[in-house]
Design brief:
2 domains; seven-stranded mixed sheet; alpha/beta; TIM Barrel; eight-stranded parallel sheet; 20 strands; Urease, subunit C, domain 1
């Protein structure tokens, strides 16, 4: 493969800014980078002039249900490739495919299909621009009926090691995250099971008290799904799960920064309380992402999208059509410094799933996943493992 050299005036790793930078890519990996004059460029290269662009790491989405008219629960190669291709256009180069509560049979079938696709994709280098599916995020079925959101109530289950082991078996080593309600009977035992399996334990769709949430954190929960949404509301006398999430330094907090799911003041509170290092922007995107308004599937049920907002038949928010490039712009518009907001969609999520050396970062040895932004922070080009990167606007 021909070595690629990218030249740019500004590059964010995202931990530092390098001006007048050169990035060298070989075999889908970053082989050298630094200021001009500090990096030797190989012969016979493909050179990309990105002088007027900002080069940043590819975005990492830990919570996404679909895009491009397809849903993760379809579990087919065609569906997963459509999802991965759609989000890649918007700068997302890595995703964790997220399930939704369904029957055990349907969940196992979907997980088996997703795992098969992931394992096959690991065997070969990408030939076209497409986000890499890093693993699976189980959202449900071990959630609170009182805070289920749009998850079907008929398939909500009490935490069960037997059900979990069966789903885990279908995942064949690709499981990354499990979101559960810690107040349910057996939840702490399931947290122990999930930790032994190497999963990140996420608190979500929960009506937990502060004490119940803290017990889960002490047991090993380190993450919270779409904070504020599908959680017991905060009260000054019973702060609930939000009190635990906001004050525990052990927990990273997901945020859907679309301007619909969370009020601006609440977003500011979250960033102030957690600090930018503990906030992870997610899309919670559904099949309607990248598509016009209309009717779409989320798991096995239908949602209606109007003016970009997805709701089920009851009028409840049903995921989003957000992309992470828009989330980045929204956070910067809120007053978050660009480098801090950038870490929320790159290094922070990669670190949470143990891939900080390979994803969400521009460094020697990391995957050549990168995004070009213009001065409005709009995506001008994308590369996944050395593939892609068309310069526009």
């Amino acid at each position: 493969m021909t070595p690629i050299v990218i030249r740019t005036d500004r590059l964010f790793t995202p931990f530092e800014e390098i001006q007048d930078a050169i990035l060298v890519i070989r075999g889908g990996k970053i082989s050298a980078m630094g200021r001009r004059g500090e990096v030797d460029t190989p012969r016979g290269i493909r050179e990309i002039n990105a002088r007027e662009k900002i080069v940043v790491p590819g975005f990492v989405d830990l919570h996404i249900h679909g895009a491009g008219g397809h849903d993760v629960m379809e579990g087919t190669t065609d569906a997963l490739e459509a999802i991965a291709a759609t989000v890649a256009i918007h700068g997302t180069t890595s995703i964790v495919a997220t399930t939704v509560t369904a029957s055990e049979i349907e969940t196992c079938a979907s997980v088996k299909g997703i795992a098969t696709h992931i394992l096959r994709s690991w065997e070969s280098a990408p030939r076209e621009l497409s986000a890499e599916i890093l693993g699976i995020h189980f959202e449900g079925p071990f959630i609170s009926a009182a805070r289920r959101g749009v998850h079907p109530s008929k398939w909500i289950a009490t935490p069960s090691s037997e059900i979990f082991e069966e789903i885990l078996k279908k995942a064949r080593g690709t499981a990354q995250i499990i979101t559960l309600a810690p107040e349910l009977p057996g939840a702490l035992d399931l947290i122990a099971d999930a930790r032994r399996a190497g999963l990140v334990i996420s608190l979500g769709h929960t009506d937990a008290t502060y004490e119940q949430a803290m017990a889960a954190i002490e047991a090993g929960a380190t993450h919270a799904a779409h904070v504020y949404n599908a959680m017991r509301p905060f009260s000054h006398r019973e702060t609930g799960v939000l009190g635990a999430v906001l004050t525990s330094p052990k927990v990273s907090a997901e945020l859907i920064a679309d301007g619909v799911h969370v009020d601006e003041a609440a977003m500011r509170i979250l960033v102030e309380m957690k600090t930018p290092e503990r906030v992870i922007l997610v899309s919670d995107g559904i099949s309607a992402t990248g598509m016009p308004d209309g009717r779409y599937q989320l798991g096995k049920f239908e949602v209606k999208v109007s003016k970009g907002v997805a709701r089920n038949a009851e009028g409840k928010l049903a995921g989003s059509t957000l992309t992470l490039d828009r989330a980045l712009r929204n956070m910067v518009a809120l007053g978050v410094p660009f480098p801090s907001a950038l870490r929320m969609i790159t290094a922070n999520p990669a670190r949470q799933i143990g891939l900080a050396a390979r994803k969400g970062i521009l460094a020697v040895g990391a995957d050549a996943d990168l995004v070009l932004l213009n001065d409005k922070l709009e995506v001008s080009g994308v590369m996944t493992k050395g593939v892609g990167l068309n310069l526009t606007n």
